[in-house]
Design brief:
This protein is mainly α. The N and C termini lie far apart (76 Å).
């Protein structure tokens, strides 16, 4: 019998969140830094040095922050599984009834729930409790290294876009061109993230464009004030 396979969008949650966050942060933080420095009246070398420093620091910060955050989730999952493993070893009957109660709560009649729980326990007791009681599955399990690498790589990819603009735009058009180009990049990123997640495009695009534009406007304003004061 040929097994039917389905590819569900929820399987993308782990890497998609980190990827969108990394790329968005790369564009917003680097473009904002460039705009702040450029608005202060700095020349191109100063702008590019600040941009590259922001790119490297941001990528490392994203990788470290994502690794620590997701590692904490992984530690919590491991602790819950260890506790469940100990409970299964000391009192499996209580755990079987607990599993059956979960199935009853989902609409299965008591007799069927008892039989299913017994069969699931016999097949893979810890796996059954991890999935049905703790809601830990292969799809949703924390993967710190994958999340860290995805965040660093996508931050770098996102940051390179405003850096490229800073290298190519005439200085007279630096602030306006950097802002416009980066907002366009954010809109494309929002659309790609929505499409990968199977969502409508409009609202995600508006979200990333609004917050990105706000961040760039604030840093450009601060840069202009500092440049005028100096």
């Amino acid at each position: 019998m040929r097994r039917h396979k389905e590819a569900h969008l929820v399987a993308r949650i782990g890497w998609l969140r980190a990827a969108v966050l990394g790329a968005n942060d790369g564009i917003v933080s680097t473009a904002s830094l460039i705009l702040g420095v450029a608005a202060s009246g700095a020349d191109r070398p100063a702008v590019l040095v600040a941009a590259m420093a922001g790119l490297v620091a941001g990528a490392m910060s994203m990788a470290a922050g994502e690794y620590v955050s997701v590692s904490s989730q992984a530690d919590t999952e491991a602790a819950d599984l260890a506790r469940e493993r100990a409970e299964l070893a000391t009192d499996p009957e209580v755990e079987r009834r607990e599993l059956a109660a979960i199935y009853v709560g989902r609409g299965v009649d008591a007799d069927t729930a008892d039989r299913v729980a017994a069969q699931m326990m016999a097949h893979d007791a810890l796996g059954a409790h991890a999935r049905d009681e703790l809601h830990i599955t292969d799809v949703t399990a924390a993967r710190p290294v994958v999340a860290a690498l995805a965040s660093a790589a996508t931050f770098t990819a996102g940051a390179l876009l405003p850096v490229l603009l800073a290298a190519l735009l005439p200085m007279a058009w630096m602030v306006v061109g950097e802002a416009a180009g980066s907002i366009l990049f954010l809109a494309v990123l929002g659309a790609l993230g929505a499409r990968a997640g199977g969502a409508a495009i409009g609202r995600p695009v508006l979200r990333v464009v609004f917050w990105g534009a706000l961040a760039m406007a604030l840093t450009a304003g601060i840069g202009r004030l500092v440049g005028t004061a100096v």
